[in-house]
Amino acid sequence: MNITFPDGSVKEFDKGTSGLEIAKSISHRLAKEALGIKVNYDIWDLHRPIHEDSFISILTWEDKGGKMVFWHSSAHLMAEAIEAVFPGTKFGIGPPIDNGFYYDIDTGEQEITQADLIQLENKMRELLAEKSQYIREDISKKEAVAYFTEKNDEYKQELIEELDDGEITLYKHGNFVDLCKGPHLPNTSYIKAVKLFAIAGAYWRGDEKRKQLTRIYGITFPKQKLLDEYLLMLEEAKKRDHRKLGRELEIFMISDKVGSGLPIWLPNGVIIREKLIEYLKKEQKQRGYVQVIAPIIGKKELYITSGHYEKYGSDSFQPIKTPSEGEEYMLKPMNCPHHCEIYKNKPHSYRELPLKMAEFGTVYRYEQSGELNGLVRARGFTQDDAHIFCTPDQLKEEFLDVVDIIEILFRKLGFEEFSAQISLRDPNNKEKYIGTDEAWEKSELAIIEAVAEKELNAVTEIGEAAFYGPKLDFMVKDALGRQWQLGTVQVDYNLPERFDLTYIGEDNQKHRPVMIHRAPFGSMERFIGLLIEHSGGDFPLWLAPRQVIILPISDKYINYAKKIWKSLDNNEIRTSIDDSNEKIGRKIRDAELGKVPYMLIVGEKEEAEGSVSVRKRKSGDLGQVKLDEFINSISKELN
Ligand SMILES: [Zn+2]
Ligand SMILES: [Zn+2]
Q: DSSP state, 346?
């Protein structure tokens, strides 16, 4: 059979060759690091024989898929430990998550507390040393029901009921058997470091009306060193939590009375937000974008036309009713339907395309209260949204332009490491998607070529496209090495169809434009949340809410401080004065805590010489300079 590798090369192997054997044929090292194998669109166990021509890639710890295999296997290992320490436990589900895994369990009368986690960790260490193999086994529905009935586990029984006979598999390792699709590691000894974190309550199947189970979270690594680094990172992340810093630096607040999930921007936050918007607007203007502003509500019919009502309606904020006439309005979940109406406001010729409509549009989406997380996950947020209406031939150029903006933004904000994911349709399931083959091929190629031309670090996911078009998502790594999903660029064949958008082509005939949705930051809220955690509150000078603080040594020099303030303010440098009665040492400490980039200390000597003593945050004392000199150098730094 022919095996195609990610670089496009093809090698022949005997039918029945496993992923591990393929990895070995490449290098000993790869075989050692391999955790799973992607076969066409699915991830498989390394030991599972491959019988047909396939596209494959070997997954290691560096791949998200590799980590998923690792953590899923770790969830099984934890379950084995739980069963050993708390016999009779019933098991719900135990999936891998972004950072580790969990298992929802029902321990019946036995109570598990935080203190038991240590014992479970120790048990896991004991068990992983046994090097038990994860063994996959096909099983009939009848046998599966019989097994879990015997075990008295009603949760697994319920899960089996929803599966079709012939697609049910078990995974066994050591003393634990689970109803599971896999994939898993070859054996438990791959897991070298274990940490169990937290116990939480979780309703069975997320349904508040059903039983509350116990959820145990954990994380594992293939090396102790990686766990140590992770724990250090968590400690640092706690200090940088944007909810904590957002409160301390007075960037935003959330009021229960106003409503959860509805961030309120405080003056310092507004400065950061407006500076970012100003910067992006400038970039967009140079690229021919125009700004529009649409209301934050729209008639229910608008969202019925766009399809958003069908998709989000019942899970969304419910319609607002007018006092008379029986009209219904909805808070807008997306800006696109409004922009389609703006496009329709007048006829368009091909000469006007691309038409790039931008709006910092605030949208409202209902999120469950348990999902809310400060600025990062909110119910109301402002997208840095734009819709590009263009001809199919303009797609590639527009993609290049959008990728360009995103790159410039990320670099400007100090994110050096970012990557992209290209999501294409599944060519074996074309009926799932709208739009012609020709259109899809054209737009997918446009994205692939733009990414290649820009030399972006990108992965391609087949079958991950939306039903209405392929897309490109951006991820950035923050200062702590955490991945954040940010901006997205999405091709759309659906809305132009639903809104019957047209342009007159060169041939004088009506044509359908293609629509691109794009939001480089994603939303201002989420992005600033990330920026707070990335910078730890030490924003780049151009974004810092307060760039300079003047610290008079005593009341005697407040008038001089005011004079300096005036000069700086005239030069548009954001400055404040600490005119409290505190000693200078205390004033410096407060300014440090407030993360103000520059402190100007003024006393008798400074006033006499028309100078300031400069302290730069994190660099310390820069000495005494003339005020003009300081203004020159900070202005230079800002430009
Ligand atoms: Zn499993
Ligand atoms: Zn849109």
A: S
